[in-house]
């Protein structure tokens, strides 16, 4: 007796994306550590990328993959600048959290 396993449908990918985005949003709202908040934003961006690819595949259009390419380029630039700022703040004040905005004042 063999079972045929179908490929996941677009709905599965959209549900996965919604769960990942919700986890990222919840982590962003609940946690105060800047590094964890940064990772939650990246999780949310990846959830959006899954949505773009799933919808692009459903519509048989390359626009989804093209949008993902641009999102990944922006995310890479965000990682370079954002992570440098976060690491600098954490080195200067090891117990810093997101409420310590005054650290950024000149």
Automatic annotation (TrEMBL):
Annotated membrane topology: Multi-pass membrane protein
Entry's transmembrane regions: 12-30, 35-55, 67-90
UniProt entry tagged with the keyword Transport: yes
Any one GO biological process: ATP synthesis coupled electron transport
Places the protein is found: Membrane
Alphabetic keyword roster: Membrane, NAD, Translocase, Transmembrane, Transmembrane helix, Transport
Keyword Translocase included in the entry's annotation: yes
An MF annotation (GO) of this entry: oxidoreductase activity, acting on NAD(P)H
Annotated Gene Ontology cellular component terms: NADH dehydrogenase complex
UniProt similarity note: Belongs to the complex I subunit 4L family.
Official protein name in the record: Unannotated protein
